[in-house]
Amino acid sequence: MTGRAAKSLIAAVAILGAAAPTAAASTLKGTPSVYTFGEGVVSDDGSTRFVTIGAGDKTVVMAIATDGGEVNDHTTTTGTYTVPAIAVDGTASGISEDGETLALISPRTTFAQNTTDLQLYEARKLRRGPENITLKGDFGFDALSPDGRTLYLIEYTDPRDPGAYQVRSYDVTSGQLDPDPILDSEEEPGEMRGFPQTRLTSPDGRWEYTLYDGGEHPFIHALDVVDGVTLCIDLDMIHARQTYGATLAMNADESTIELTDRKGILRAVMDPETHAVSEPGEEPEPTAAPAEPEDSGLEAAGIAAGALVLMALAAVGIRRMRR
After folding, report:
1. Inter-residue contact 13 to 51 (CB < 8 Å)
2. Is 241 helix (H, G, I), strand (E, B) or coil?
3. For 53-89, how does the pLDDT look when each residue is reduced to its tens digit (9 = 90+)?
4. Cis omega (within 30 of 0) on the bond before 240?
5. What does the alpha-carbon distance between residue 88 and residue 148 come to, in Å, rounded to a whole number?
6. Nearest partner of 246 among 202, 210, 193, judged by Cα
7. 282 vs 151, 219, 270, CA distance in Å?
8. Of 8, 83, 270, 305, which is most buried with the most CB atoms under 10 A?
9. What b/e string do you get for 24-53 counting C-beta neighbours within 10 Å, with b at 16 or more?
10. In angstroms, rounded to a whole number, what is the distance separating the alpha carbons of residues 50 and 234?
11. What is the pLDDT of residue 268?
């Protein structure tokens, strides 16, 4: 935890008399969802950090100023909820780009689970309380649309395989889960699997790029959170072992996305306009663009980066996956 985050939490606990930061995750080795341990998620403008604090059978949700650590708003809800993380490296998510919607999820205790509970808040008015969502099935949080009107989820489709999943969308206004998964037009349904290692959000907030270790090979899953379409970009030039501890980052002029391994070696570059990928120094190979959505809600195939991998000791306790 950073020094700034720690100071914010200390101030919040002192004010609210809460217990230790919420620290919940799967208790079974290899299960998918990992949840943040008190650091929370920061708004797009960098002004506010949203955190959750466990208080017995309740959860305190707080908006903390990143400058000075003042608690600007807080509320208490029944049950255990936390800011979701969406990659093995602990990348947190759950706040819409416009800063208006905050999403929390109830940590799993088993895989697979029969139902999934989430909460949505007006981020600037936490005290109004949440909208409670209960979904039948095993889901993880993936992303919010910039306006907070669409919630993207990872659905785990095989109780025997935590790496098998598909992307689903939930319409916040109607309160309905789209019956059709979001699929990449170039992939077969059920073909994609793997675990998200790290994520990069495009500067305009439209694209969520997530690096997966993949099944046969690593790939970048690109999710357009405005139009609700996906593109899976194969990374044949790298090995799965090179994804652990890797980072995705825009270069200085935002003309390329760079994949760097844990040793700091540049392994691949991608053009964010064409999604063409190449090894450093090579000409990029173009990647097919995602299919345009139709009014009927065209399936647009793929994987979203949502749920995380936690290597936990069953019957011993919970701990973060160590690389």
Report:
1. no
2. helix
3. 988 889 999 999 999 999 999 999 999 999 998 999 9
4. no
5. 24
6. 210
7. 37, 18, 11
8. 305
9. bbbbeebbbbbbbbbbbbbbeeeebbbbbb
10. 34
11. 96
The C-alpha atoms of residue 35 and residue 43 are separated, in whole angstroms, by 18
CA distance 155 to 180: 11
Query: Band of the pLDDT at 320, cuts 50, 70, 90?
Result: very low
Phi, psi of 187 (to 5 degrees): -115, 155
209, two tokens: 């790029």
What span, in angstroms and rounded, lies between the C-alpha atoms of 256 and 266?
12
pLDDT in tens, 184-196: 866 666 667 888 9
**Sign of the dihedral defined by the CA atoms of residues 206, 209, 214, 217, in that order:** positive
Q: How much is the pTM?
A: 0.76
Q: Residue 94 above 80 pLDDT?
A: yes
In angstroms, the CA 301 to CA 290 distance is: 9
How many other C-beta atoms lie within 10 A of the C-beta of residue 105? 26
Contacts of 272 (CB under 8 A, 6+ apart): 202, 207, 250, 254, 255, 256, 257
Query: Are β-strands 150-156 and 165-171 bridged in parallel, bridged antiparallel, or unpaired?
Result: antiparallel
Dist CA 206 CA 49 (whole Å): 21
Question: Edge-to-edge, what's the strand order for the sheet holding 247-250?
Answer: 247-250, 257-260, 266-270, 277-278
Residue-wise pLDDT for 170-224, tens only, equals 999 999 999 999 988 666 666 678 889 999 999 999 999 999 986 778 999 999 9
**DSSP-derived 3-state class of residue 11:** helix
Assess contact for 35 and 319: CB atoms under 8 A.
Answer: no
Q: What is the mean pLDDT of the chain?
A: 79
Q: Which of helix, strand or coil describes residue 15?
A: helix
User: Six-digit token pair at 251?
Assistant: 């270069």
Give residue for tokens 């000409």: 283
